[in-house]
């Protein structure tokens, strides 16, 4: 079986016609001694019976045979025969030459596990020459040398020149890939004993001779693995990993893409996070800065207020020293918390009283007007201020002591322009005497006059007075208040009076209608003459170029006569609304009392029918105003004298108006004038010791149907409804009902120990209309406004009922309805979409029903106030029953003397209330 004597077989994969054959067929064919691989070849694809199918059956090779690749190529033979094997005869040699050989073979040994030598023979040999062995896994070159050198070199194979196994370790560049530290077997020979096991049984029994065989390792076993496992185990692990890595190799190829994406995404993400953090940081800084600014402003405001208050103190304090009326230092000694108004400072002087004309001290404040007191007398009743109870949109409320009782004094900042409206609302409050409406006890207004600007302020005040008088007159004539006087009309008033005396009221009215700016004296006379000559019914031709609001005869009279500083006009509808003025047409008790006296110019203006009174009052006011303008020292009305503002000794109305005009021109714009006549009204109110209903409600557990709590809620709600009933009975609309405008006072006669009382009435709204210096939140709670008010500005008693429904919601849930909506969103929700706050599922059905009826979209669908009260009664009864409170033993809902039986019940409830108060205080 010599190589040279046989035939050559050409092997390809796939086969090329009949010119090529398979490797297995070529090996089987005993004539073939030379096999040439024309293509890369995977032996696995050859099939013949394998060991599992036919154990012990091998392909017999009984000759010497050479397998080679085509010259000059790197043909690859994959020796993965798997379970098939060939057996060399005892003296046969298989030579593999000039090939790249790969094998999935496990283990570290020879790649030729396809071949088996004859048992007991040592002459069979596999000779490799010029071979590149590509291995999936192997030990490092040096480790391989150690293993290889341990094997015996057969004596029958020619020895190496040195007589030793010859190896070299080098970095090999194969097909563009670097394989560092590769083992090159230059001349290595070893006997592979038959005992070598390769999983399928014994292999070996032949000699291996490697001449220039380079082993390229794709992966090298880690030395750490070799410390715990056998070399084969480690290599096998490595090969397993490599084979399993077919997929992972793909994944590895895709990995860079993933990595690429990550490489882009991660920095982006980091940049985004950094930007976010920066934005957060900046916004926080900004907030901090804003807060700091706000704090600074607040401090400044506080300082100003304190300055103002201390100025005021100087007005009130002297009286404390005398201690005649109240004694002690209320608010400082008595109440350690009181500190905002530190109480009397101990200035020497006679007792100062709230309502006793200009006060000493030269602080720039002068008492401008005051109403008659309802409680106590005017004289010797000082106000001593205690702690600040709260701050609203237009001023502060202090706890105070006045006329021998604890009161709350609401200090309202406004200017002279707003004074008329303020006074009107104050008068309304003074006129109410109902247990469920906060009682107004007294009022006084101060005007602030800069010494050097006294004249200017007086002029401004006079202008205001004229406007107020006009308004009063208009109202008394049954017309709505529409505007203030223009200067040219003011100029025309005396002319009218002088030139047109003798006209009837209606003629005068006609004349007024024709009067426009720029009407000359001659034109005016002509018109008067025309009217006088043509009779009262005749209409006058229009005077060209005239426009603007006009005055009635009464107005002229008022205008001409004027009023005092911050004089008060007639009545306007509460809340600036169109609600009927009839409710006030009778005038207040205060005004009636004023008529009795002869000194006060600041009583509420009389309504029509009180012309004489008006004139009387007006004359005094005019005198004061004239005095202010004249700035002379001659005394007139002592009630209004002031070191800076002295009444003039004379001067007719015409000259007053002229002076006024001149003064206005000298002093600049009306706004500047208004600034110089800042007013401050002190409204003395009944003190409500339990705070607001809002505060009380914040103590309740929101949404829980606890009978006791529900009863308290309903009782206070009924109080508020009774207050509303009192208002509505006089055709007065509150216009700003919400739980913050309902105050609560403890009351022994009330079933729950507390009584709710409506506060503010239309004051806030009126102030808002004149607001130039609003200090806190918006007046008029938007969330409580019904659709018709939002859409058309339509004010009626139904507006209060709607607000009542929203208040019910707030009292039950503890939440503000629509809190987070801005005006546009709110308008859209309420008016366009008809949205209402969500009714909580646990809300008792009777409560929910009433609440929803109250906030019905159509005003006509809402219950009237008496209807509402009727609904509340059974709801209260029901809860009382559940709490086993004897209904008959309780006092009737409004004030009455409790019977003995009722007293026990009352005590029980009061104890509950006290308990709650204590808890609240403890908190
Ligand atoms: N008669 C009173 N008795 C006791 N506390 C009162 C009295 N009047 C007002 N307060 C307290 O003073 C606070 C401020 O009241 P004020 O009427 O000035 O403002 P408001 O009604 O809260 O707000 P706004 O004027 O903007 O409607 C109230 O919240 C209340 O706590």
TrEMBL record:
ATP binds at residue 410. PROSITE patterns: PROTEIN_KINASE_ATP, PROTEIN_KINASE_DOM. Gene3D superfamilies: Phosphorylase Kinase, domain 1, Transferase(Phosphotransferase) domain 1. The keyword Transport does not apply. InterPro entries: Kinase-like_dom_sf (IPR011009), Prot_kinase_dom (IPR000719), Protein_kinase_ATP_BS (IPR017441), Ser-Thr/Tyr_kinase_cat_dom (IPR001245), Ser/Thr_Kinases-Pseudokinases (IPR051681). GO terms for molecular function: ATP binding; protein serine/threonine kinase activity. Keywords: ATP-binding, Membrane, Nucleotide-binding, Signal, Transmembrane, Transmembrane helix. Residues 482-504, 550-560, 575-589, 609-636, 658-667 have a biased composition (Low complexity). The keyword ATP-binding applies. The chain crosses the membrane at residues 257-282. Residues 311-342, 477-516, 536-671 are annotated as: Disordered. Residues 383-876 form the Protein kinase domain. This is Protein kinase domain-containing protein. It comes from Tetradesmus obliquus (Green alga). The lineage of its organism: Eukaryota, Viridiplantae, Chlorophyta, core chlorophytes, Chlorophyceae.
């Amino acid at each position: 079986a010599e190589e040279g004597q046989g035939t050559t077989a050409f092997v390809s994969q796939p086969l090329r016609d009949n010119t090529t054959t398979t490797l297995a067929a070529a090996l089987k064919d005993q004539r073939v001694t030379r096999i040439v691989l024309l293509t890369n070849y995977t032996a696995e694809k050859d099939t013949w019976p394998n060991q599992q199918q036919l154990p012990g059956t091998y392909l017999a090779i009984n000759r010497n045979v050479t397998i080679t690749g085509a010259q000059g190529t790197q043909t690859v033979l994959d020796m993965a025969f798997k379970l098939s094997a060939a057996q060399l005869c005892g003296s046969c040699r298989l030579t593999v030459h000039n090939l790249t050989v790969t094998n999935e073979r496990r283990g570290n040994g020879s790649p030729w596990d396809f071949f088996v030598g004859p048992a007991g023979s040592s002459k069979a040999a596999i000779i490799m020459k010029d071979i590149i062995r590509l291995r999936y896994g192997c030990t490092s070159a040096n480790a391989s040398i150690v293993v290889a050198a341990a094997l015996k070199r057969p004596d029958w194979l020619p020895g190496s020149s040195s007589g030793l196994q010859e190896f070299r370790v080098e970095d090999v560049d194969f097909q563009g890939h670097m394989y560092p530290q590769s083992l090159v077997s230059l001349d290595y020979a070893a006997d592979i004993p038959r005992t070598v096991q390769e999983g399928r049984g014994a292999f070996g029994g032949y000699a291996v001779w490697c001449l220039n065989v380079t082993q390229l390792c794709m992966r090298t076993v880690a030395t750490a693995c070799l410390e715990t496992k056998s070399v084969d185990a480690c290599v096998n692990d490595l090969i397993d990993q490599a084979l399993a890595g077919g997929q992972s190799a793909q994944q590895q190829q895709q990995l860079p893409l993933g990595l690429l994406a990550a490489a882009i995404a991660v920095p982006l993400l980091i940049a985004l996070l950094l930007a976010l953090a920066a934005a957060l940081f900046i916004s926080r800084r900004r907030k901090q800065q804003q807060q700091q600014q706000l704090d600074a402003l607040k401090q400044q405001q506080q300082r100003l207020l304190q300055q103002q208050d201390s100025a005021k103190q100087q007005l009130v304090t002297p009286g404390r020293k005398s201690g005649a009326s109240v004694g002690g230092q209320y608010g400082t000694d008595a109440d350690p918390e009181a500190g905002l108004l530190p109480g009397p400072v101990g200035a020497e002087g006679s007792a100062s009283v709230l309502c006793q004309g200009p006060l000493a001290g030269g602080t720039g404040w002068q008492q401008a007007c005051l109403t008659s007191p309802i409680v106590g007398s005017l004289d010797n009743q000082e106000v001593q201020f205690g702690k600040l109870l709260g701050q609203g949109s237009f001023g502060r409320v202090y706890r105070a002591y006045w006329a021998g009782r604890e009161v709350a004094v609401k200090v309202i900042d406004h200017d002279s322009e707003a004074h008329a409206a303020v006074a009107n609302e104050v008068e309304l409050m003074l006129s109410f005497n109902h247990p469920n409406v906060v009682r107004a006890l007294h009022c006084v207004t101060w005007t602030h006059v800069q010494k050097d600007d006294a004249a200017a302020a007086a002029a401004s005040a006079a202008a205001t007075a004229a406007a107020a008088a006009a308004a009063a007159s208009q109202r008394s004539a049954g017309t709505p208040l529409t505007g203030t006087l223009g200067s040219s009309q003011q100029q025309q008033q005396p002319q009218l009076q002088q030139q047109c005396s003798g006209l009837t009221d209606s003629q005068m009215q006609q004349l007024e209608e024709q009067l426009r700016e720029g009407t000359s004296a001659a034109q005016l006379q002509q018109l008067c003459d025309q009217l006088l000559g043509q009779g009262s019914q005749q209409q006058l031709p229009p005077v060209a170029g005239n426009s603007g609001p006009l005055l009635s005869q009464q107005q002229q009279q008022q205008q001409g006569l004027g009023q005092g500083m911050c004089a008060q006009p007639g009545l306007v509808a509460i809340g600036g609304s169109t609600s009927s003025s009839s409710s006030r047409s009778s005038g207040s008790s205060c005004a009636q009392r004023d008529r009795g006296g002869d000194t006060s110019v600041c009583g509420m203006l009389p309504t029509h029918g009180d012309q004489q009174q008006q004139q009387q009052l007006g004359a005094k006011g005019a005198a004061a105003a004239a005095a202010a303008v004249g700035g002379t020292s001659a005394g007139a009305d002592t009630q209004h004298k002031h070191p800076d503002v002295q009444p003039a000794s004379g001067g007719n109305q015409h000259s007053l108006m002229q002076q006024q005009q001149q003064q206005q021109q000298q002093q600049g714009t009306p706004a500047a004038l208004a600034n110089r006549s800042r007013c401050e009204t002190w409204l003395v109110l009944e003190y409500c010791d339990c705070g607001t209903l809002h505060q009380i409600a914040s103590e309740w557990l929101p949404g829980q149907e606890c009978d006791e709590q529900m009863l308290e809620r309903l009782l206070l709600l009924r109080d508020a409804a009774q207050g509303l009933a009192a208002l509505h009975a006089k055709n007065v609309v509150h216009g700003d009902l919400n739980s913050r405008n309902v105050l609560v006072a403890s009351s022994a006669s009330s079933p729950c120990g507390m009584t709710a009382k409506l506060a503010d009435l239309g004051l806030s709204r009126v102030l808002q209309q004149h607001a130039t210096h609003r200090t806190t939140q918006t007046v008029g709670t938007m969330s409580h406004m019904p659709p018709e008010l939002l859409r058309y500005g339509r004010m009626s008693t139904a507006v209060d009922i709607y607000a009542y429904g929203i208040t019910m919601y707030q009292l039950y849930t503890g939440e503000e309805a629509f809190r987070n909506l801005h005006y546009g969103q709110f308008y859209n929700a309420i008016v366009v979409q008809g949205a209402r706050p969500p009714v909580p599922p646990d809300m008792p059905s009777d409560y929910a029903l009433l609440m929803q009826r109250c906030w019905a979209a159509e005003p006509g669908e809402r219950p009237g106030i008496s209807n509402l009260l009727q609904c509340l009664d059974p709801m209260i009864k029901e809860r009382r029953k559940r709490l086993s409170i004897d209904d008959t033993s309780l006092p009737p809902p409004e004030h009455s003397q409790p019977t003995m039986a009722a007293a026990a019940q009352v005590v029980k409830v009061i104890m509950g209330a006290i308990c709650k108060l204590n808890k609240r205080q403890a908190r």
